[in-house]
Amino acid sequence: MCGIVGYIGRKQAAPVLLDGLAKLEYRGYDSAGLAVRNGSESAVVVKSKGRLSNLSEMTDRGNTLVGTCGIGHTRWATHGEPSVKNAHPHVSGNCAGSGSGNVESDVVGVHNGIIENYIELKAKLERHGYTFYSATDTEVVIKLIDYYYKKYKIGPVDALAKTMVRVRGSYALEVMFSDRPGEIWVARKDSPMIIGIADGESYVASDVPAILKYTRNVYYIGNFEIAKLTEGEVHFFNLDGDEIEKELVAIQWDAESAEKGGYQHFMMKEIHEQPKAIQDTINSLTKDGHIDLSACGLSDEEIKSFSSVTIVACGTAWHSGVVGQYVFERLAGIPVRTELASEFRYRHPLLGKDQLVVVVSQSGETADTLAALRLAKENGVKVLAIVNVVGSSIAREADYVLYTLAGPEIAVASTKAYSTQLIAMYALAIKFASVRKGVEEKPYIDSINALPNKIEEILAKKERLQWFSSKYSNAKSIFFIGRGIDYAVSLEGSLKLKEISYIHSEAYAAGELKHGTISLIEENTLVIGVLTQSEVLEKTISNMVECKARGGYLMGITTYGNYQVEDTLNFVTYIPKCEELFAASLAVIPLQLMAYYVSLSKGLDVDKPRNLAKSVTVE
Ligand code: AGP
Questions:
Q1: What is the predicted pLDDT for the residue at 81?
Q2: Does 49 participate in catalysis according to the annotation?
Q3: N or C terminus of the chain: which is more exposed, having fewer CB within 10 Å?
Q4: Which residue, 452, 483, 424, 416, is CA-closest to 578?
Q5: Which residue minimizes the CA distance to atom 16 of ligand 1?
Q6: Please, what is the average pLDDT of the chain?
């Protein structure tokens, strides 16, 4: 969702802002804008609809905007259509136009998040003579800051604090005051924002990749906190206006990890990074041949005390939880239920203190997952987070954190985050099995350690999948079926395909097809069966045969050795043999590759599919 950047220092701000926004493009957006100040002159605002390249062209790659202090934004429309008028930055002035050009306004700002009570606040401001040119909640909040700033003749800290107390919702706010040159002010509640510091320079961004090229030293600004940025300096304040100390944290990700590194798309690069990401994650969770959760703080006594586990997440992270549910129950013998975060909160779940809630999130900022975490904590339930982004809201609010070491995931379609989430699930399940049932850990740890090489083997043969996938670029509908863990990984294969190829697709528990969905199978409908679980392989094959009888074209993903499937299926992809409980880690690779190749052959924007955002910070 929206991306924000800010810069103050010695360089010209606009090129730095454009570069930062380009790194945040993966978050999803439909318009973009910049506001740059040259010394004490008023800010110049430039906005455009559509791709960032439009804004870059309008400003000659930022060169026509002079000034070393500025803010920038990519907007993912919530209130009001994607348009220049609704694009950020917004201004406090009562200008009749779009808020572009040389603005005399006293406050100029950008915002990520949603202001829930903006209608009521807008009415209040209208009573005080403010007029509005856009349909956004952001224009309201910028004008509210201006209102308090002038009415009470107070400084930026107090004006921002008053605004923060008055608004309901979420925000990462970044503003410049016309009478405070050389300063950028930010405030945050529930929307991601980091502040980077280098020699004589300060940066603001929604996410690390935007500033990684310039600095790895960052501050995480907390909820209800305010910060003032000047050249190379930052001061933090709480709502009372008291200055507060914050710890400077060094980011471990390297700058190259946020670049494409020779690949055509981030998604393909990230698919290939999976063996390393998995190995790094395994290494961080094992020590001397045992699962070691000491870094996350979960003790053996606590592991013994839980009577059930509830895994809560969204999208791909939820899919890793569905795999986790099977693995966990089978290995550790504890009841596990996996739930969609967006449903969990509103079904009024019965939460007991002897439960463990596991939330899973790549970004650590997904609004529904964060809300589920908070609900569990409010009910006295311990929460363990499996999360990729260090310092994210979910990481900070959970009782225990298991970090996945996937590095920055830029493509909207999640691949390496999923693979590392699976590893975290396996590690947790092995640990629970060992502590609660005395299960020997070594064979399972050996099995997960063998996964990276097996993934390399699958990747080495990707061309055959490219050839097969390209034949399906015009498919109307594609079905994925499986049972148990094979069903769980089918869910992920189907999501990958639909999000980047825009082909309708369903993942179905193989045995359930005949209860209705099989009516959708027509001549040549592609049905992909995942066949890694020997216990149910024949049953799934039977369900595939039922599809073939209705015209379906059958593709299977199975392990080497199961050559008998060729008697029935039209096309087979083999994956190396592994411990079946961990087979999702291998079966997902051909599914990711297929989704990628179908999207590629359709000429679509693989990394930035339509309508989607990388980090979903609204409910
Ligand atoms: C997956 O490809 C998606 N882009 C999406 O489903 C994603 O997994 C979901 O929005 C959850 O995100 P999170 O892991 O950052 O919480």
A1: 82
A2: no
A3: C
A4: 452
A5: 361
A6: 93
- Residue 413 beta carbon below 6 angstroms from any ligand 1 atom: yes
Closest ligand 1 atom, CA of 412?
Answer: 4
405 CA → ligand 1 middle, Å: 16
Question: Based on C-alpha coordinates, what's the Rg of the chain?
Answer: 25
Pocket test residue of 27, 266, 359, 366 for ligand 1, highest count of atoms within 8 A of CB: 366
How far is Cα 418 from Cα 362, in angstroms, rounded to an integer? Answer: 8
Give the C-alpha separation, 13 to 7, whole Å.
6
Peptide bond into 156 cis (omega under 30): no
For the chain, give the number of residues.
Answer: 619
Q: For 29-71, how does the pLDDT look when each residue is reduced to its tens digit (9 = 90+)?
A: 889 999 999 998 989 999 999 889 999 999 999 999 999 999 9
Model pLDDT, residue 78: 78
The pLDDT value given to residue 100: 65
CA 34 to ligand 1 centroid distance, Å: 28
> Whole-angstrom Cα distance, residue 234 to residue 473?
51
Answer whether 317 contacts ligand 1 (Cβ < 6 A): yes
**Which parts of the chain register pLDDT below 70?**
1, 94-104, 255, 618
Q: What is the pLDDT of residue 190?
A: 87
The answer to whether 35 touches 108, Cβ cutoff 8 Å, is yes
Is the beta carbon of 314 within 6 A of some atom in ligand 1? yes
Total-model pTM: 0.81
Is 2 considered catalytic here? Answer: yes
